[in-house]
Amino acid sequence: MNRQRILSFVKIGLTLLIIVFSIAFSVWNVDFNELGQSFSTANYWFALLIIVPIILSHYVRAIRWKVILERIHPEVRTGNLFAGVMVGYFMNNLIPRSGEVLRPWFTAQSEKQTTFSSLLGSIIVERFIDTVALLLVIAAILFVDSGLFEGFESIGVRPDVIQPILYMAILLGVVFIVIAPSKAGLWLAETGTAPLSWMARRFGLGRLEQLRAGVLDMFRKLQLGFGAIKSLRQVLLVTVHTVLLYFLYMLPLYIMFFAFDSGLRTQPSLFAALEIWAVTALGYAVAPTPGAFGVFHASARIALMKFAGFTDADAVAYATLTHFVNYLVPIGLGVYYLLTREVSMGTLLRARSAQ
Question: Where are the domains of the chain?
Answer without folding.
Answer: 32-354
